[in-house]
Amino acid sequence: MSVPMFATAGIALKPEHFRDVHERGPDMDGLWVEVHAENYMVEGGPRLAWLRVIAEQTPVSLHGVGLSLAGPGRVDEDHLARWRRLVDRVPAALVSEHLAWSVADGQYFADLLPVVLDGTSLARVRENVERFQDAIGRTVLIENPAHYVPLRAEIPETDFLSELCRTTGCGLLLDLNNLAVGEFNIGRDARGYIEALPRDIVGEIHLAGAAPDSAREDLLIDSHNRPVADPVWELLDAALERFGPVPVLIERDANLPPFEELAAERERAHAAIIAAQARRERLDEPVG
């Protein structure tokens, strides 16, 4: 099952805001929500029941965090089966995962670990993305990673992701906070990254907040526990200019604010999408 997704703004849905989204979401123009898929890979219970109720009135995006697409081996077949059951139960507008790994030799690491970008990694990730898409019968989006230290890369990350999308048919989930974190930590040019990507590759954009590391003020962590920072809002305008209006998500996973504060950030993102659409329509108007 799937439902249409439009170029509007959404929020990361947490249990604390289930009732707010259910009661107030229909009055918010184009609201959609995204959840971490693994939290709903259960056979029953109130959390899954709430999500299914919300999905009846609000588009839902399923965002995976544990498939380990870039791990040293094949993606776990049991995990793929759980994904299949979830997309059968919850009509999803979008499905996404990360360019990262979290499983090795049967051991799970509760983190999204970095990938060496070379031909071997590209072949492995490509194979696992194809398995994922075949298992759920859906095209997926793959999220670009955050960076904390420079890593060896035989293939530029933008080329790696572009080739992955070209050869598997998947799309890109462009996380702009990850770009801002990488620019702060290792000096990577965030706007240059945006310009290096093909215009038709991005299917969703993430916005989030970051925080300094508790031990090092010169290291920024993709913490999702603060409001979206001004540099990330500026990157949103640049991304919408290049890729056109696409769904934009406000990610907030910790230090959750009242729903009104989250909704205000969402409205700012929604206004940016509308402005980008208006600019595009003006450019498309015939002259003379």
Distance between the termini: 46 Å
Structural class: alpha/beta
Q: Architecture, according to CATH?
A: Alpha-Beta Barrel
Instruction: Specify the biggest β-sheet.
Output: 8 strands, parallel, barrel
Tally of structural domains? 1
Whole-number average pLDDT?
A: 94
CATH topology label: TIM Barrel
Radius of gyration over C-alpha positions, nearest whole angstrom: 18 Å
Number of helices, counting only DSSP H or I runs of 4 residues or more:
9
CATH class: Alpha Beta
Strand order of the largest sheet: 1-2-3-4-7-8-9-12
pLDDT < 50 stretches = none
Order of helices and strands: EHEHEHEEEHEHEHHEEEHEH
Strand runs, count? 12
Shape: globular
CATH superfamily: Divalent-metal-dependent TIM barrel enzymes
Q: What portion of the residues fall into strands of 2 or more residues? A: 15-25%
- Percent helix, as a range, is 40-55%
Question: What is the structure about, briefly put?
Answer:
The protein is about 40% helix and about 20% strand. It has about 290 residues and is α/β, with parallel strands linked by helices.
Describe the SSE topology:
Layout: E1 9-12, H1 18-24, E2 32-36, H2 46-55, E3 60-63, H3 77-89, E4 92-98, E5 101-104, E6 107-113, H4 119-136, E7 141-143, H5 157-168, E8 171-175, H6 176-186, H7 190-196, E9 202-207, E10 211-212, E11 220-221, H8 230-243, E12 248-250, H9 259-284
Parallel strand pairs: 1-2, 1-12, 2-3, 3-4, 4-7, 7-8, 8-9, 9-12
Antiparallel strand pairs: 5-6, 10-11
Helix pairs in contact: 3-4, 4-5, 6-8, 7-8, 8-9
Protein name: DUF692 domain-containing protein
Pfam families: MbnB_TglH_ChrH
InterPro entries: MbnB/TglH/ChrH, Xyl_isomerase-like_sf
